Amino acid sequence: MPVPNKFVILSGGLAVISLIAFVSNRRLKYLRKKEKETAYLKYMEEQHITVHMVSETVYVTKGQGVHTAFIELVKLLRGDKNIAIVLNNEGTGNVFHSHTYGPYYFWKGRSYKGRRVLTAHVIPDSIKGSLPLWRYLMPLARQYFKMVYSYADTIIALSPMVECAIKDLGVKTKVVKIYNPVLTDNWVRTPESRVKGRKLLGIKDNETLVLGVGQLQERKGVEDFIDIGEAIPDARFVWVGGRPFGIFTEGIKRIDSKIEHAAPNINFAGMQELEDMRFLYAAADIFLFPSYQENCPLAPLEAAASGIPVVFRDLNEYKLLYTHPYIKAADTADFIRITTELINNKPYYNDAVKISKNLIKEFDKVKIREEIISLYHDLLSKYFKK
Questions:
Q1: Are residues 115 and 85 in the same domain?
Q2: Three-state SS for 209?
Q3: Residues 272 and 378 in one domain
Q4: Do 50 and 173 fall into the same domain?
Q5: Residue 45 pLDDT
Q6: Phi, psi (deg, nearest 5) at residue 37
Q7: Which of 150, 141, 49 lies closest to 109, judged by CA?
Q8: Cα–Cα dist 155/97, whole Å
Q9: In a domain, 25, yes or no
Q10: Could you give the strand order of the β-sheet that contains 209-213, starting from the edge strand earlier in sequence?
Q11: Mean per-residue pLDDT pooled into runs of 10, the chain (386 residues)
């Protein structure tokens, strides 16, 4: 009886393996199809969405605006009975929504093709004055952000400037413009919260407090804040914020030297817990925001919601973002002039408070929640129809 040669045995073995692989692949596709059909029927029946919300800030960089926006959006969406939220490693959902753009974003989003949402808190220009050697890193940053944006199925642009920056990279992903919501209830000022905030900062009742909030880097204008404070020695100036990115922060040595030699009326409170920020805003009389680049910053809106005047740097970003009037300063001399006027002119101060009150109307939490939930429904409808 002839013995099969090795070639015949190998060929037969490969054929069996190929058949098993083919059948397994078809079986897997069938199961995925059935799973998708089951999910679709459940979604259509209940109109309930579970959002898998992801942010790497939970693990590495809590002391910055992206983390605040992430926390507050989770809180806002949990206020809707038809929305459930699972965070990071807690489970999976119908929709994937990320606020950061590191390896975690790519890893967690791998099984959500067609249902990935990214809130673009950061654009390539955000590294200017934020990271050391940012000029040399810019070409790499542009390529990386193009990859980040292209991985998403829908991008939430927080401002017209963000939308333009995304399209400027040649990204084909759908872009939807939805602003950061302001949870006004979080920032209500009371006499008790003012007392507590001043105690936390070591400010006396009769002292005028000018507050600044942001990371200790050139982009945030902290050095200009020091110059403004030194020009107005009769008021107290306090900057809240640190370096959540540690040694990967621009200008550490230069800024630390300026802080060390700052006038006695200027203090630095470091990073504070988010829960304590409402007390610090309540403690303040004026809020300065001398940042050189922003997208949809939360800190000045939070300060405005607490009922104090806010002075912005005169940036094109804000002209595109805000529909209501706002107080703006062209340079450091202008910040000094406006701040001095706010301190000494009560009618001007009262008008500035009214400007703050009107400014936050554009960032109504109910309206923005509805826009985001509508985005989720639109994404799921298109996904299930494929």
A1: yes
A2: strand
A3: no
A4: yes
A5: 54
A6: -65, -40
A7: 150
A8: 10
A9: no
A10: 266-270, 236-240, 209-213, 286-289, 310-313, 327-329
A11: 60 68 64 54 68 90 80 94 93 94 94 95 82 80 94 96 94 95 93 97 96 94 98 98 81 93 96 93 98 92 97 95 96 98 98 97 94 94 83
> Which residue carries 């370096």 as its tokens?
243
Amino acid at 357: K
* N-terminal to C-terminal alpha carbon distance within the chain: 56
The closest alpha carbon to 73, from 61, 48, 55, belongs to: 55
Query: Which candidate, 351, 182, 185, 192, places its Cα nearest to that of 283?
Result: 192
Residue 106 has which token pair?
A: 């790519």
Task: State the Cα–Cα distance between residues 89 and 87, nearest whole angstrom.
Answer: 6
User: CA 329 from chain center: how many Å?
Assistant: 24
Residues 202 and 315 in one domain: yes
Alpha carbon 210 to chain centroid, angstroms: 24
For residue 182, what pLDDT is reported? 93
Q: What is the pLDDT of residue 345?
A: 98
Q: Output the pLDDT for position 38.
A: 55
**219, 202 contact by CB (below 8 A):** no
In the three-class reduction of DSSP (H, G, I as helix; E, B as strand; rest coil), residue 266 is classed as: strand
Helices in the chain by DSSP H: which ranges? 6-46, 65-77, 103-108, 134-151, 160-168, 191-201, 222-231, 252-260, 277-283, 299-305, 316-321, 332-344, 346-359, 365-385
Structure tokens at 72: 């507050």
Give pLDDT, residue 25.
67
Q: Residue for token digits 């809130």? A: 119
pLDDT at 39: 56
* Count of CB atoms situated within 10 Å of the CB of 92: 11
Report the candidate in 100, 11, 19, 13 with the shortest Cα–Cα distance to residue 54. Answer: 100
CATH code of the domain covering residue 88: 3.40.50.2000
Q: How many CA atoms lie within 13 A of 259 on its CB side?
A: 20
Residues 248/131, Cβ–Cβ less than 8 Å: yes
Structure-block tokens of residue 119: 């809130």
pLDDT, residue 337, reads 98
Distance CA 11, CA 35 (A): 36
Domain that holds residue 220: 184-363
Position 34 in a domain? no
